[in-house]
């Protein structure tokens, strides 16, 4: 049995860990530290509420430095070497929010769903099954599960939670894709945001009852307030990006707001507003990754304003480094 487990780990390119001694040696942490971070992991979090934009709060679990370091080690050396479903576009190395929008270009109808408490719905048993299925024994699977979970589920704030949630959602994605794909519907998932699109609005909307049933059967819950259908008369939006016939981007409204913020950097009263400068720089970096057309327009606009207002805060913009 041990030989079979090691073969599986080798095939996946994962570190072979059969005992706490192995775990200690490979992580350079003492056995006592590993025991404390595993058996008493709930004492290694600082928990606080964070307000949501749509109202209400979510609990953020900030791991201690040692626990976060071990979670990051598991993420880099084990979890990131595991493949997620083809439908999964969020929190994966090399993927972006644009990859989630791109498959839906040219759709006539878009249906979007949101899962409630995505991390909190993933149980410690499901996390254990991830580690067990890739070849780790009961002891190591239990230790890694304890390290990566809190109060029986994935904590929001741990570096390993997004990847583990994606891995646990593999069956969810496969079942949904298997159902909607046969009906000509495109499906992607970005964390807890599920997006469906098709050429025929009626066909797209008709998949909703079965999709809901699959989601519930897999142990997840839909947030009914965030279910959205958009067709010809309503803006098609996926994870904040506006979808058009042949492209996607931030949309005209957000673009106008960004231009106004950029122009404010030329105002005398804003010359010490470093927060505004950082906000604009962040928006432009985001713009480059999701909307090259408007990024090029912004670049020309900033270059023009820099010449017209050489002694203002706009000259500290880092747009030249982003190109």
Automatic annotation (TrEMBL):
<dbReference type="InterPro" id="IPR000123">
    <property type="entry name" value="Reverse_transcriptase_msDNA"/>
</dbReference>
<dbReference type="InterPro" id="IPR043502">
    <property type="entry name" value="DNA/RNA_pol_sf"/>
</dbReference>
<feature type="domain" description="Reverse transcriptase">
    <location>
        <begin position="1"/>
        <end position="243"/>
    </location>
</feature>
<protein>
    <recommendedName>
        <fullName>RNA-directed DNA polymerase</fullName>
        <ecNumber>2.7.7.49</ecNumber>
    </recommendedName>
</protein>
<dbReference type="GO" id="GO:0003723">
    <property type="term" value="F:RNA binding"/>
</dbReference>
<dbReference type="GO" id="GO:0051607">
    <property type="term" value="P:defense response to virus"/>
</dbReference>
<dbReference type="InterPro" id="IPR051083">
    <property type="entry name" value="GrpII_Intron_Splice-Mob/Def"/>
</dbReference>
<keyword id="KW-0695">RNA-directed DNA polymerase</keyword>
<keyword id="KW-0479">Metal-binding</keyword>
<dbReference type="GO" id="GO:0003964">
    <property type="term" value="F:RNA-directed DNA polymerase activity"/>
</dbReference>
<keyword id="KW-0460">Magnesium</keyword>
<keyword id="KW-0051">Antiviral defense</keyword>
<keyword id="KW-0548">Nucleotidyltransferase</keyword>
<dbReference type="GO" id="GO:0046872">
    <property type="term" value="F:metal ion binding"/>
</dbReference>
<dbReference type="Pfam" id="PF00078">
    <property type="entry name" value="RVT_1"/>
</dbReference>
<comment type="similarity">
    <text>Belongs to the bacterial reverse transcriptase family.</text>
</comment>
<dbReference type="InterPro" id="IPR000477">
    <property type="entry name" value="RT_dom"/>
</dbReference>
<keyword id="KW-0808">Transferase</keyword>
């Amino acid at each position: 049995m041990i030989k079979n487990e090691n073969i599986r780990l080798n095939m996946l390119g994962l570190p072979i860990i059969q005992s706490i001694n192995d775990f200690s040696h490979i992580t350079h942490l003492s056995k006592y530290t590993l025991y404390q971070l595993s058996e008493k992991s709930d004492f290694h979090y600082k928990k606080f509420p964070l307000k949501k934009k749509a109202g209400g709060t979510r609990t953020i679990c900030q791991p201690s430095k040692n626990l976060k370091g071990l979670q990051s080690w598991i993420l880099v050396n084990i979890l990131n070497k595991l493949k997620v479903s083809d439908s999964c576009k969020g929190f994966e190395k090399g993927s972006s929010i644009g990859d989630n929008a791109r498959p839906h270009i040219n759709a006539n109808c878009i249906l979007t769903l949101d899962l409630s408490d995505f991390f909190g719905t993933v149980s410690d048993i499901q996390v254990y099954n991830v580690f067990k299925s890739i070849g780790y024994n009961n002891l190591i699977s239990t230790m890694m599960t304890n390290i990566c979970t809190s109060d029986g589920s994935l904590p929001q704030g741990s570096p390993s939670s997004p990847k583990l949630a994606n891995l646990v959602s593999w069956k969810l994605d496969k079942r949904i894709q298997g159902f909607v794909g046969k009906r000509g519907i495109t499906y992607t998932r970005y964390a807890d945001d599920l997006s469906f699109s098709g050429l025929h609005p009626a066909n797209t909307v008709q998949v909703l009852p079965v999709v809901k049933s699959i989601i519930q059967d897999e142990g997840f819950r839909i947030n009914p307030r965030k279910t959205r259908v958009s067709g010809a008369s309503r803006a098609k939006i996926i994870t904040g990006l506006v979808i058009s016939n042949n492209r996607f981007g931030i949309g005209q409204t957000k673009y106008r707001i960004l231009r106004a913020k950029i122009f404010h950097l030329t105002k005398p009263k804003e010359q010490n507003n470093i927060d505004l400068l950082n906000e604009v720089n962040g928006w432009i970096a985001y713009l480059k990754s999701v909307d090259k057309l408007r990024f090029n327009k912004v670049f020309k606009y900033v270059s023009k304003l820099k010449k017209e207002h050489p002694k203002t805060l706009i000259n500290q913009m880092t747009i030249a480094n982003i190109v």
